[in-house]
Amino acid sequence: MSRHHVAIAFSMFMVACGGATPRIAPNTTDESIAVRVRTALLNDPVVHASEINVAAQNGVVVLRGQVHGQSEANAAIAVARRIDGVRDVQSELQTNR
């Protein structure tokens, strides 16, 4: 098989596999998990994240602070659970309503 044929076969293989760039897993240190959860909470339209503290240890996220009702607490927990690297979420959120 010529080099040209090998290059074409390799290109076809990479296209079939979804592209030439491998997906890199996000950094999963506790600090990076906490930062990603905090960022997601700040960007969520339902959660008022200004009064929520986020900590992580061994992939377990702890949410502490005040929220405006149980629906906001549930939303914050759901946001945290969606983050890669989060093994569990513990809520110490308190509702002020």
Number of strands: 3
Percentage of helical residues? 40-55%
> What can be said about the biggest beta sheet?
3 strands, mixed
Distance between termini?
73 Å
Q: What series of H and E elements makes up the topology? A: HHEEHE
- Sum up the overall morphology in one term: elongated
The name CATH uses for the topology is: Histidine-containing Protein, Chain: A
Uncertain segments are 20-24
Radius of gyration: 21 Å
Strand order of the largest sheet: 1-2-3
Strand content: 15-25%
Which architecture does the CATH hierarchy give at level 2?
2-Layer Sandwich
Secondary structural class: alpha+beta
Rounded mean pLDDT score: 84
What CATH first level would be assigned? Alpha Beta
Number of helices: 3
Number of domains: 1
General description of the model:
The chain has helices at 3-16, 30-43, 70-81, and strands spanning 52-57, 60-67, 88-95. The protein has 97 residues and is α+β, with helices and mostly antiparallel strands. It has a single domain (26-95), classed as Histidine-containing Protein, Chain: A, CATH 3.30.1340.30. It has a 3-stranded mixed beta sheet. Helix 3 links the parallel strand 2 (60-67) and strand 3 (88-95).
